[in-house]
Amino acid sequence: MKLTLKIWRQKNHDAKGELKTYPIDGIEGDMSFLEMLDVLNEGLINNGEEPVVFDHDCREGICGSCSLQINGEPHGPDRLITTCQLHMRSFKDGDTIVIEPFRANAFPVIKDLVVDRSAFDRIQQAGGYVSVNTSGNTVDANSIPVNKHDADESFNAATCIGCGACVAACKNASAMLFTSAKISQFALLPQGKIEATERALNMVKQMDEEGFGNCSNTGACEIECPKGITLVNIARMNREYVSASLEAPLSNAWSIDDESSLFD
Amino acid sequence: MSILDSKIPKGPLADKWTKHKNDINLINPANKRNIDVIVIGTGLAGGSAAATLAELGYNVKTFCYQDSPRRAHSIAAQGGINAAKNYQGDGDSNYRLFYDTVKGGDYRSREANSYRLAELSGNIIDQCVAQGVPFAREYGGYLDNRSFGGVLVSRTFYAKGQTGQQLLLGAYAAMNRQINRGKIQSFNRHEMLDLVMVDGKARGIIARDLVSGEIERHSAHAVVIASGGYGNVFYLSTNAMGSNATAAWKIHKKGAYFANPCYTQIHPTCIPVSGDHQSKLTLMSESLRNDGRIWVPKKKEDAEAIRKGTKKPNDLSADERDFYLERRYPSFGNLVPRDVASRAAKERCDAGFGVNKTGQAVFLDFASAIERYGKERAVVHGNHNPTENEIKTYGKQVIREKYGNLFQMYEKIVDANPYETPMMIYPAVHYTMGGIWVDYNLQSTIPGCFVLGEANFSDHGANRLGASALMQGLADGYFVIPYTIGNYLAEDIKTGKIPTDSPEFDEAEKNIRTTLEKLINNNGKHSVDHFHKKLGHIMWEKCGMARNAKDLKEAAVEIRALREEFWRDVRIPGGINEMNAELEKATRVADFLELGELFAKDALNRNESAGGHFREEYQTDEGEALRDDENYMYVAAWEYTGDPGNEILHKEALEYEDIEVKTRSYK
Amino acid sequence: MAILTSSIARKVAMALSGLFLVLFLAQHFTINITSVIDPETFNSLSHFMGHNFVVQFIAQPILIFGVVFHFIMGLILEIRNRGARSIKYQSFKGNNNSTWASRNMLISGAVILAFLGLHFYDFWFPEIVHKYVESNPMDPTRYYPDLVQKFESPVRTGLYCLAFVLLALHLWHGFASSFQSMGWNNKYSKGLRGFTKFYAIFIPLGFIFIAIYLHLNQ
């Protein structure tokens, strides 16, 4: 397979970047997308040029490192996979492939296709945990039964790999799918209920401070999410946030303290 | 008498850990605030250790090369985590888990460590559930279990095929809680390049900021290494691309003994290699062997026809299939331990029965499971006379619920639908049981340098049972190191901050700079990957699933030659003071090129077959591993002397007091 | 005030004001459709709306506030959202994962706003002038003829129709979206979404029908 690659090259965070064109030949359908980039890089190194830098690690779709915007979509044209799971059989001979970094002001470019997603870490640090000591001296695991449906839903939310495709796909660069997945995981479990109020308020606050855009429910994140995390989570977060705001002291967000007056 | 002191506490096996905890020194909370600890690696072991140590009050700095602690490769563990909870009431107990672990490890693990691991296993589940890890549950709301290889009970807790991910996110969440409190400083995209020793103790590290390229000095009163295994010495493995041995190898060069490097786990169920471009191998969880049956054709003609594509696997009737694991090991069947299953696959493929283009694959077939589950579910749905199609639909539903993500992963990579046609699998390098030698306190031979998880050698012997790696990582991090490190640090409450402007730090930093400059200015002919692939080829062909003295000798020579070539001829574009992925790879591969030679040396030294180490010269008539307990029931701990070819062997004799050592049998 | 800074609070505010406007549309449509069925009913309803104290001095200011609020909040959000990605993609295939309507609420909203300007110029200002500036005597029969006269011009009728198409697009995304924003996404949502889509087509289509009907029945 012969392809034309247009790849974003940017020396470092402060440099100005541009799309550069690289023709490439001898690509097989069984190669993964990243293996195709390996081939390109091997050629660049042998020519004394600097290889294209991109984030990648596990190459089996679970670590969430890989993060390319491929032909205008995060993780490329296929659904429910990450870039490392995308195979070249999804393209055809003669195709032009545009490869850009995930773009959002909250994800500044570090170099070429590598972006800084530490904003996600900070959102989690703001409350994405249950405050339990790690001594092991808790109750027996089976003394906290959890309804299977809730446990499964919680798991589904928890499968988020933090890749940032939701932000990349969103026209507003909103991080609500990511944030809501974490809030949902805990909101659905009895262990998470105790800190639910603080968690929702603090995580959303941090999300806002990081400079992500707002959600306008286009649903692009849900379509592009490699783990199939759904908008139901965002709705749940909205609900959690509203009820948290109503429960928390008046000054926190709203000036209405009667929960029922809003929706009934 | 060996100079290795394993510091195993006296007393009955079951009381050792409790007694030890009662005997060791504690540090009062006010003093913990004055003590710094560095943790390298943020996987299950490192992440859980960092969280717990910070919670106790130590000032913790964590380092990981990934952009977030959450991406450490523990995240990729699929199948599950063992714990002797006996929730299923099938006769499980701490002793049985201990027994299975020691037997599974082919009687080459340290008895006291393995027992402690089993003893702590139940607590891990309690802890993780309290943290909100969403394990799989039954309809009653209680935790579900499944079965893994090498055992006769169901003790594996799981979260679909993403158990490692969920456990790691739990540890990461615990870390986040401490980061939020300011007790952990997390250095992401940082790589440890050397250990700094002051007065014979581990007192800090030299790290490189992988974004700016800056070389940094970090001091601490103790350094915890939890950097994972060295499977990538084979180039192709199920490890992440960045998984490396640098931290472990660097402390080895500073005086930590490296134990049993030849004990490598080759996992039987991975997606086969598809071509030269392959950059890594993908595991298909061992849990699939609960329901998948492994087979090759009985007749060579059929195997050839399948390879050519003139026959499809489904064309063969049950009589024409050789379910070789069920045939050879009737009592454990498809759930024999990994080493056994891998060798059996290799044996069939070498004999010409392989089923893919390269002849290096066997089938993992779900047809009978689909049928069995389909019938069961039909009954549940009140359908007592289901058609064949209905059975299949129901059956696929069940399989999808259990293994959906794995099947999807397979389909994406191979472009074949495993619900309809059997999966093709082949063994691949997965885990390294060998690692830095540690005593019962998880301290290496360097005072103040502790090693946890896959990076150490202690708990799994010559072969690790499925779903035990997650257990060990978390046990070490959450429950062992918090006690044992305190015992060591009790001496340091008055030491005060360790300065980073000492001659030792100057020297260490200078050495690192020299090495990096040498690499970057080398201007050779070949990329780092070129050398890494060559190393991988030597390792796989000569130190792989089956080894012999001749090959191992050759491998050592070839690796040494390749190492020299690497330093002469490697080419790294770009500079030091910037993000440079090639430079990162180069420092890692440089260490693999040394480790590989020691690996071959260790394998050559061990004139027996045990677990994952199979020497062709030492096998029974039936092709099973033949141990030599008289001469090799010891841990081979190697001391670095300036050259990996000339390392000195120290032996820690293994003594089994509570378990009868016998020939491992899964028949 | 936190309501102006928290992303989710803004979203909920957008949803609430939007839902309020959706309700208003239904009411407006109900009255207008009577102009096609029975001009006298139309006249009496219009007269009631124009002279009822509650409608005029409580409901109407709330409505105007709702429109202004919805618009300003929408604009603020849009500006912030655009600011969240200052370097744009060179290649962005939005259509592969979302609808045009959902991504361009500002465009459809702006068109609707422009239409509102025209609509005020046509009806609201003359009405205010008629009632409160010129202090004309009450005439409960004047509404229908006024209405018919406005739709004499094919250009105006065309502009109205175009605006209603954009209104349909705005509702197509906005109506269902408002429930999601308020956290209402459950097993009933599918049915509800169906209703909102129906509403998004039916109401604007009805308005278009009225405009064309009146234009053709001069």
Polypeptide structure, described:
The complex is a heterotrimer of chains A (264), B (667) and C (218). By secondary structure, chain A is of the alpha+beta class. Chain A contains ten helices and seven strands. Chain A has helices at 33-46, 118-125, 148-158, 165-169, 176-187, 190-193, 196-209, 220-224, 232-247, 260-263; strands spanning 3-9, 18-24, 68-70, 73-74, 96-101, 109-111, 114-115. In chain A, strand 3 and strand 4 form a beta hairpin. Chain B is of the alpha+beta class and 667 residues long. Among the domains of chain B are: 268-429, Alpha-Beta Complex (Flavocytochrome C3, Chain A, domain 1), CATH 3.90.700; 502-633, Up-down Bundle (Methane Monooxygenase Hydroxylase, Chain G, domain 1). Helix content of chain B is 39%, strand content 14%. In chain B, helix 3 packs parallel to helix 13. The mean pLDDT of chain B is 96. Chain C has one domain. Chain C is 79% helix and 0% strand. Chain C has helices at residues 7-37, 39-51, 53-83, 100-103, 105-133, 143-150, 154-181, 189-216. In chain C, helix 1 (7-37) crosses helix 3 (53-83), helix 1 packs across helix 7 (154-181) and helix 1 packs across helix 8. The model of chain C has no long low-confidence stretch (mean pLDDT 94). Chains A and B meet through helix 1, helix 2 and helix 3 of A and helix 3, helix 5, helix 6 and helix 12 of B.
